[in-house]
């Protein structure tokens, strides 16, 4: 099979409003001067005529458009896997679920990232989305700024992603062996708790097991509306992030070895071990206080534990791993020797931690928000009681 230009595959189900919005953002995006196929893959549902009508009516001016209506209901996991398999035919593929919205520059980033990653064997895929939230703890997150337009994360993306044929084949070869990920503690417990319908937890486990990474952009090329649907109960803005509004820009991309922003599946910077000069097998990094069980001798954590403190750090610089990289003094993070039990004399500073995550959280704002919430709840209660 000869390689073709990377197609865009839109994965749709029963959200007509979301599909319309995504297709509009595709129309407003820029593209290289070449033929690009658009495939709109719609999973079978009882009430999907409106989605079909939208897909059929949409005009695509950059290549061939094909609407694929699945003959049976696949569910999200099988549907995504089927769409990912298109990389075997085309050489690469971009997959977008229908509740996403893309940047005008998304295709240029993917094009450059796929080309760049050909020489990076540790890259298991390309993300269009950029995380600003640790999904395990709901803390703010941002990768260290190192002068490059990308960073590396041992966490696959489902909010806009691309794979080359080689990247996808490696994952599917592993996946087809029916891996058991439920007992792999290197995969975060939150990820392992996802339902059997999730394809993403397998892609994440694959990256962890093989020590591979997804390449992420520093500024997002997609954002997530989290429209209500099969897997989401209510619309939400929690995963909305700023989009790159550039156009046809050239990205400065780093290799894994060049990057200072390389993170494991727990959102922990994997270069901290080099700064501390402690071997990976001897160190557990737990700046978010999320990891619990560890048999490693040395622990770097925000938790107040009764072990010998070898060194402590402040929590002032942002992102917080920069405090370790620059040896900022303080008593917010502790490097423990867990082989030695010793009383920790420090106390948790709640005000400082709240201040770190929020630029300003005034009493007036909290009271106003509480009043608004209470008023809304009271209004809804009156409607139920008096049926007005």
Write a structural description.
The protein is an alpha/beta fold. The protein has three domains: 8-263, Alpha-Beta Complex (Spore Coat Polysaccharide Biosynthesis Protein SpsA, Chain A); 272-341, no CATH class; 358-386. The chain is built from twelve helices and 15 strands. The longest helix is centred in the last third of the chain and has 24 residues, at 363-386. It has helices at residues 16-27, 49-57, 75-84, 86-90, 106-117, 165-175, 189-192, 200-210, 272-276, 321-325, 350-357, 363-386; strands spanning 8-12, 38-42, 65-69, 92-97, 100-102, 123-127, 150-153, 161-164, 213-217, 222-224, 262-263, 283-286, 298-301, 307-313, 333-341.
Labels describing this entry:
single chain; 388 residues; Spore Coat Polysaccharide Biosynthesis Protein SpsA, Chain A; 9-stranded mixed sheet; 4-stranded mixed sheet; globular
């Amino acid at each position: 099979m000869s390689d073709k230009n990377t197609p865009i595959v839109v994965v749709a189900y029963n959200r007509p409003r979301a599909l319309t919005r995504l297709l509009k953002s595709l129309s407003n995006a820029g593209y290289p001067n070449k033929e690009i196929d658009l495939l709109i893959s719609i999973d079978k549902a009882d009430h999907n005529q409106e989605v079909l009508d939208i897909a059929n009516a949409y005009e695509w001016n950059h290549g061939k458009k094909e609407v694929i209506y699945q003959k049976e209901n696949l569910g999200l996991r099988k549907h995504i896997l089927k769409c990912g398999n298109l990389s075997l035919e085309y050489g690469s593929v971009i997959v977008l679920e229908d509740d996403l919205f893309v940047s005008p520059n998304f295709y240029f980033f993917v094009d450059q990232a796929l080309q760049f990653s050909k020489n990076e064997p540790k890259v298991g895929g390309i993300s269009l989305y950029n995380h600003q939230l640790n999904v395990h703890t709901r803390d703010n997150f941002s990768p260290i700024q190192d002068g490059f337009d990308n960073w590396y994360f041992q966490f696959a993306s489902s909010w806009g992603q691309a794979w080359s044929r080689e990247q996808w084949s490696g994952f599917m070869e592993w996946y087809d062996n029916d891996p058991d990920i439920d007992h792999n503690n290197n995969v975060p417990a939150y990820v392992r708790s996802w339902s059997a319908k999730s394809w993403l937890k397998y892609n994440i486990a694959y990256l962890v097991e093989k020590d591979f990474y997804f390449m992420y952009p520093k500024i997002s090329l997609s954002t997530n509306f989290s429209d209500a649907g099969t897997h989401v109960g209510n619309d939400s803005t929690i995963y909305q992030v700023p989009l790159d509004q550039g156009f046809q820009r050239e990205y400065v991309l780093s290799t894994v070895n060049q990057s200072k922003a390389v993170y494991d599946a727990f959102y922990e910077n994997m270069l901290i071990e080099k700064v501390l000069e402690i071997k990976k097998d001897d160190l557990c990094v737990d700046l978010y206080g999320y990891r619990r069980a560890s048999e490693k001798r040395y622990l770097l954590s925000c938790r107040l534990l009764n072990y010998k403190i070898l060194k402590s750090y402040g929590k002032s610089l942002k992102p917080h791993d920069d405090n370790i990289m620059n040896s900022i003094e303080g008593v917010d993070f502790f490097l423990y020797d867990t082989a030695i039990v010793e009383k920790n004399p420090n106390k948790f500073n709640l005000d400082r931690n709240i201040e770190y995550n929020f630029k300003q959280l005034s009493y007036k704002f909290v009271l106003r928000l509480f009043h608004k919430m209470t008023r809304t709840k009271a209004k809804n209660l009156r409607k139920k009681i008096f049926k007005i």
